[in-house]
Amino acid sequence: MSTGDESGEPGGDQILAAEYALGLLDEAARARFATRLADEPELRRELRFWQQRFADLDGEFAEATPPARLYEGIEQRLFSGALPASAGLWSSLAFWRGLAAACLAVAIVGVGFGLWAPHAPLTGPELATALEAQGSDVSFIAIYNQAAGTVQIAALSGAPVPDKDFELWAIKGKAAPQSMGVIPVTQSRNIVLSPNLKQGFDAGTVLAVTLEQKGGSPTGVAQGPIVAKGVAIPI
Amino acid sequence: MSQSTADIADLIARTALRDRAAFRALYQRTSAKLFGVTLRILKDRFEAEEALQEVYVKIWQRADRYVAGGYSPISWLVAVARNHALDRLRSRRPGADTIEAALEIADRAPDPEAATIGKGERREIENCLGQLQNDRADAVRGAYLDGFSYEELAARYKVPLNTMRTWLRRSLMKLRECLSA
What we know:
The complex is a heterodimer of chains A (about 240) and B (about 180).
Chain A: H1 12-22, H2 27-39, H3 41-55, H4 69-79, H5 84-87, H6 93-112, E1 126-131, E2 139-145, E3 150-157, E4 164-171, E5 178-183, E6 189-192, H7 195-198, E7 206-213, E8 226-231, E9 233-234
Antiparallel strand pairs in A: 1-2, 1-9, 2-3, 3-6, 4-5, 4-7, 7-8
Helix pairs in contact in A: 1-3
Chain B: H1 3-16, H2 20-42, H3 45-62, H4 73-92, H5 100-107, H6 122-129, H7 134-145, H8 150-157, H9 161-180
Helix pairs in contact in B: 1-2, 2-3, 2-4, 3-4, 6-9, 7-9, 8-9
């Protein structure tokens, strides 16, 4: 909320231009500033001043080599000439979301008819979730069998990442995430929960997968980015 | 202009002429830097990869907007990547929007006085940041390099939001004085 508090201060426009260059202004203030830029050369000069000075910090962005496959994706987006829907089908999040939903439905129906039996007998209430995240190409489905105290998890998409492992976490309400261990992306896994993990594992519990160093986070606290998550719902 | 700067400027110019080989070479030369930018700001490898692809799509589409002599070519590329990453970051926050419209204007308003932009004279800003208290200089750095918002900075330094604003604005004023001295 900035209701004109950027004006009327000493150095108002200078500071405003700096805040704009840094990306600190809220939506409304940013729009006002941008509108003024078109008509006010002095303001443009001030913005250039800051952009130029801040750009001198660009050396602090450490280089990081992107995965080799990325460039192909760029060429495909630009030059494939095909409709985006078909060109990017296998990398399309919407596609995987649809598939995840479909698989989950099949899994649920399968469980319901006893076609796809988790390792433990189906005696207790079940929870299920599809785990995914925006911008991520890994997704999982997970089914929790309360009576058996197990979570069965299978990857729907994604590939192993060299020198990294995927780690599964349970987040119950506001408590700190609890690790459920490292999970593979090439096969399904049946995880037997410790009493600690079973405690409070309910509908609403969030399952999240992070990308961690080999063997999982050494500290018991997630360190890597979340690549997939989902909320457990009763089935 | 150093050889490598001239090379990158040349690759951008050829990209503007729809030279795919030049575009590929530009990607090979600069993607590690720009990935560093999206990764640092988005702090999520998968999202940073996605953003990097979008950044190069944008570079292909906008290469003709690059005005030789207006920006150091790598600074221009970093600015495209940083702005795009900030847009993605904002779209995650409540009240999401984008700064595309604003960028359009800034992109099209080259200013002769900006001829030295991003020449790599780090010392001047380093020197002036060094005259601020450590945490305040870090807050300015965090806003530029990590894309932290006022809210995030306030949480980081454990001060109320308005205190954070006042802090940072005062720091920017000092910085302005020092930089124009």
